[in-house]
Design goal:
The protein is α+β, with helices and mostly antiparallel strands. It folds into two domains: 30 residues; 137 residues, Immunoglobulin-like (Sandwich), CATH 2.60.40. It has two helices and 14 strands, in the order αβββββββββαβββββ. The protein is elongated. Keywords: Membrane, Transmembrane, Transmembrane helix.
């Protein structure tokens, strides 16, 4: 009788060992599947964000990454360098557009040769800002005598512009629209600083 019990126990031991191995194998399989699904998910997200694994572009100003709608940017009189950063340059990279227009959120009325005009309806003023575009950067050149009225005067063909006594405070008067070659559009709401600015752009120092 004792011999039969020993034989039965001997057969049960390998079965328990097999069950433990099987359970451990299932746990490992679940972990691997989870990791695989996470990797696939990251790959899909990256493909969407980078336009099908072609390239992914961003705009930087003074080392600052600019979001798709960046507010409160202050440019300096003189040369302002914006860099186009690309993770993976592709065919068509470097083909982008830059436009500047009046911010319609700045609601006030001014006079152009005595005729009332709405700032919200001024529209594009790109030509005043002297934009120069190259493959991986563009420059916005702001005259030393810049003023809101000087921009409007050029827009209205040299007419004398009279602004109201008080302009809206804490308002970005201009919007720069950068259309990148990956299809993304960056909006930069900006004003011009009254203080001189030194922009460090290695290996050059721009005053």
């Amino acid at each position: 009788m004792a011999a039969k019990k020993k034989a039965s126990a001997a057969r049960a031991a390998p079965q328990k060992s097999k069950k433990k191995k099987s359970r451990a194998g299932r746990i490992v399989a679940v972990i691997l599947l989870t990791v695989l699904l996470a990797a696939v998910g990251c790959g899909i997200y990256y493909a969407i964000e980078t336009n099908g694994f072609t390239h992914f572009e961003d705009v930087e100003y003074n080392g600052r990454h600019l979001g798709t709608a960046e507010r409160g940017v202050k440019l300096a009189r003189g040369k302002n360098v914006f860099e186009i950063k690309s993770i993976k340059p592709a065919a068509g990279a470097g083909k982008y557009t830059v436009r500047i227009q009046a911010n319609s959120e700045a609601k006030f009325t001014f006079q152009a040769d005595g005729n009332p005009q709405s700032f919200a309806h001024v529209g594009e003023v790109t030509e005043y800002f002297g934009i120069e575009i190259s493959e991986d950067r563009f420059e916005v050149n702001i005259p030393s005598d810049y003023s809101v009225s000087s921009v409007l005067s050029e827009k209205y063909g040299g007419e004398t512009v009279t602004l109201p006594d008080e302009l809206p405070k804490d308002t970005d008067f201009w919007i720069m629209s950068v259309g990148l070659s990956d299809g993304k559009n960056i909006l930069i709401y900006f004003g011009v600083s009254d203080k001189p600015t030194i922009s460090i752009n290695p290996p050059h120092i721009i005053f």
